């Protein structure tokens, strides 16, 4: 109908607002020459390996896949598979609801060694508690299965359990699966009260808006990744990761959500909402046993996930450069202000740099392939390689490279911000 506003596009808002801010940023710049060199290096590796070598979603065995889910009490195999998918979806949303800021330590003398993998594994083991129960607890009603499949209370991550979770209970569920602490290093989940409240919000949001079902929520997206990000943001306020530039000058809180969606002063990021969609796609849509609901048609709209690791590796290779004052803060492990100019500049430049890298990697890859072989088979292979290059897959490549180099102590420090958004 004429005069109707287009639905809010979170991914477009991220790209547009970050690009606009990078043009104004003075504390972080993108080095075009280094970006071109690094992009060419990635393109050469893709051509040599005939793939962008990123690990599959559960290649390391960190995540819950439902492979150990063995309740064969369904007569309908489709319902059985949908329940497995529902449980995986709940695991992913739970993981990404509390996937932020692991580095703070309660000890003055010991650092916190907790990493993403420790939380992912602990939550996986919690999700596996009732995989082999002999009693049928999970249920589905007749009719459209996508609106009826719901995990029952036997599943630790069911919406009802999440809605009623306490910080003490959350601690007791996860801590036994973390590595043992020592005098020099502890393994603890910081801000347990805040994380618990986000899981409470996740459970209530599913119950109040989506019939207590991840499948129901995902079905409303009509296989659109951008739409699913929007649904997540509308349902769960804790995922609303944006900064209002007007709050800097006025020294006030950011504008409210409804205003922020269309405000020209807002810079959008939505890291955890976007990574939740990407994780669902990787686990349930991109895999060999994909489910149509999660095979999103517009995954290329998802941007990189601006957190700690990606800007850390981009700075390491010279793509992102910090002014001396900011570089000193980062290198000295000084905490940056949450939502401040420096933090926003790092995150916005990360988004824009990866967007430019995607285009340059594709261009270099096409040039390399054309010079190497012009056969029809080569052209077909090139098309597949180009299709696989996106902000999401480049992010995965950078994150995995960063993780490897960090374990070898080859990376400089990352910026530090106490935040719930990454």
User: Could you tell me the number of beta strands?
Assistant: 6
Q: Biggest sheet, open or closed, and with what strands and sense?
A: 2 strands, antiparallel
Low-confidence runs? none
Order of strands in the sheet with most strands: 1-6
Helix content: 40-55%
- Return the string of H and E elements: HEHHEHHHHEHHHEHHEHHEHHHH
Mean pLDDT: 91
Radius of gyration: 22 Å
Quickly count the helices: 18
Secondary structure: elements and pairs:
Blueprint: H1 10-22, E1 28-30, H2 32-49, H3 77-97, E2 111-112, H4 116-127, H5 145-148, H6 159-163, H7 167-174, E3 185-186, H8 192-209, H9 214-219, H10 225-235, E4 242-244, H11 246-250, H12 257-260, E5 266-268, H13 271-285, H14 309-316, E6 320-322, H15 324-331, H16 341-372, H17 376-388, H18 391-407
